[in-house]
Amino acid sequence: MAYAQANQNCKDIAKKMMDNDIKIQKIHGQMKHVIDAATGKESQNYPRIDRFNRHVNILIHNLGSRVGIMQGLIEEANQQGNNCQKMAKKISGKVNTMQEIYVNMVLSLQNPNTSGSKLSELNKDLEQQANGANSDLENAVKSF
After folding, report:
1. pLDDT tens profile 14-73
2. Would you say 69 and 62 are in contact if contact means Cβ atoms under 8 Å apart?
3. Distance set, CA 45 to CA 6, 25, 111, 133 (Å)
4. Which pLDDT score, from 0 to 100, does residue 74 have?
5. CA dihedral of 12, 18, 24, 26, whole degrees rounded to 10
6. What total of structural domains would you count in the chain?
């Protein structure tokens, strides 16, 4: 009985993580749209995007919130049974990388000379991590 409840708790945690990962993917899409709109899609000449770009600031703040929630869920998963700890271990590297990307985005905004290309590169890295996390979480939910 306790095993079934632990698996259900773990499944719920994985679903919450998937929801946050999907929201991170949406943030990525919105960030791409904002950068493309500021630069023109075919232009390789990226203008500066700094802390005064309100839309980018909001997106980066939302990213930080979502990554923080996922880190909290990983801690919660580590307190569950072995299967949940395995899932947490598998996903924690990707979440930690997303946290680093978030920090680098914040630092980029603080630099008034940061071009859109820097944020565009970080955003591509974010997409890779979010897609990888999503597939890992889908597999975890299926296994419970």
Report:
1. 999 999 999 999 999 998 888 777 666 544 555 556 556 678 888 999 999 999 999 999
2. no
3. 53, 25, 18, 32
4. 95
5. -120
6. 1
Which residues, in sequence order, are bridge partners of residue 133? none
Q: Tokens in use for 86?
A: 């395995």
What pTM was estimated for this model as a whole?
0.83
CATH number of the domain encompassing residue 51: 1.20.120.340
What does the angle CA 75 – CA 128 – CA 138 come to, to the nearest 5 degrees? 55
Q: What's the domain range around 33?
A: 2-143
Place of tokens 């990307």: 101
Residue 24: how many CA atoms within 13 Å on its side-chain side?
Answer: 33
What are the helix (H) ranges across the chain?
2-39, 54-78, 82-110, 116-143
Cα–Cα distance, 144 to 80 (Å, whole number): 13
Q: How far apart are CA 122 and CA 98, in angstroms?
A: 10
